[in-house]
Write a structure and sequence with these properties.
The chain is mainly alpha-helical.
Length: 131
């Protein structure tokens, strides 16, 4: 799931053009089966995943793209069920959080924000001395 999550983060940031390029160039690579739902005519040589596993990986990938695009983090995300496609979409239920990893991610984000604010304040202070 590490590759799936990494690809999902890039696709969320860079858009469907990247996704389409990956699909066209990696369609026969077993490591990238998660990009598309089942396609019985295009099963990569050496593929070991069953159709159910592949479909589950594809669903996970779709959800990760959506969650990254909506600002969720690598280890922290919204856990409430939601409808991805309005008005007649299905409810999606995100996986449970690893609370320790989510807490560490939130603490790291707070430290980054604090460091940015401190650096901004320092620049303001130094700019005030020059005048």
């Amino acid at each position: 799931l590490i590759l799936t999550t990494a690809v999902a983060s890039f696709v969320a940031k860079d858009g469907s053009i990247l996704e389409q390029k990956l699909i066209s160039t990696q369609s026969f690579n077993p490591d990238f089966q998660f990009l598309t739902p089942r396609d019985d005519d295009a099963v990569p040589v050496g593929a070991t995943n069953t159709d159910d596993e592949r479909f589950a990986e594809h669903i996970f990938y779709r959800w990760r793209v959506y969650s990254f695009a909506h600002g969720d983090g690598l280890n922290s995300w919204r856990t409430d069920p939601f409808v991805m496609f309005e008005p007649h979409g299905r409810f999606w239920i995100p996986p449970p959080l690893n609370t320790l990893a989510a807490q560490k991610e939130e603490e790291a984000e707070k430290r980054r924000e604090h460091d940015i604010l401190a650096a901004q304040e320092e620049r303001r202070r130094l700019a005030g001395k020059k005048q």
